Amino acid sequence: MPYSKSQNKKDNIKTGKKFENLAAKYFEQEGFKILERNWRTGHKEIDLIIQKDNLLVFVEVKSTYSKKFGHPSERIDQKKISNITDCAQEYLLAKKIKNLDIRFDVITFANGQLEHYPQAFEAKE
Questions:
Q1: Model's pTM, two decimal places?
Q2: Domains of the chain
Q3: Is the distance from CB of 24 to CB of 37 less than 8 angstroms?
Q4: In angstroms, rounded to a whole number, what is the distance separating the alpha carbons of residues 61 and 68?
Q5: Beta partners for 104?
Q6: Sheet order of strands, 113-117 included
Q7: pLDDT in tens, 14-35
C-alpha cells in the first residue's frame, strides 16, 4: 500500500525529531545547555537554541538518506537563513537577551553521519 501524503509528513517529522535529538546530545556532550527545541514565532522555527557560557547558538538541523536531493546543507538557502535570523531576533526580544555572543550553526546528517558547521552563516542585514 503506498504512503499517503499525511503518512509521509508524519515520517518526516519523526525522522526530523530523531536527528534533532542526536544533535542535542552532541551539543550536550560538548558542554552546551539546551535552552529550547523547535522554538517558533509565526511560521518560522529554530530547531535548537543552546548556550555555553556567554555564547548563544541558534542551530538548524538538516538530514537526508538519499544523495538524490544533494547534501542536506544545500537546502539552507537565503530564504531559510532569513527565516532563522528573523526568528532568532524575535527570540532575543521575547527573552530580553542582551550582551551574549550569538552564532548560527548548522548540523547535518548525510546517511546518518553528523557534520557540524559552526558559524555557518551570519545574521541577515
A1: 0.87
A2: 5-117 (3.40.1350.10)
A3: yes
A4: 19
A5: 58
A6: 33-41, 44-52, 55-64, 101-110, 113-117
A7: 666 889 999 999 999 999 999 9
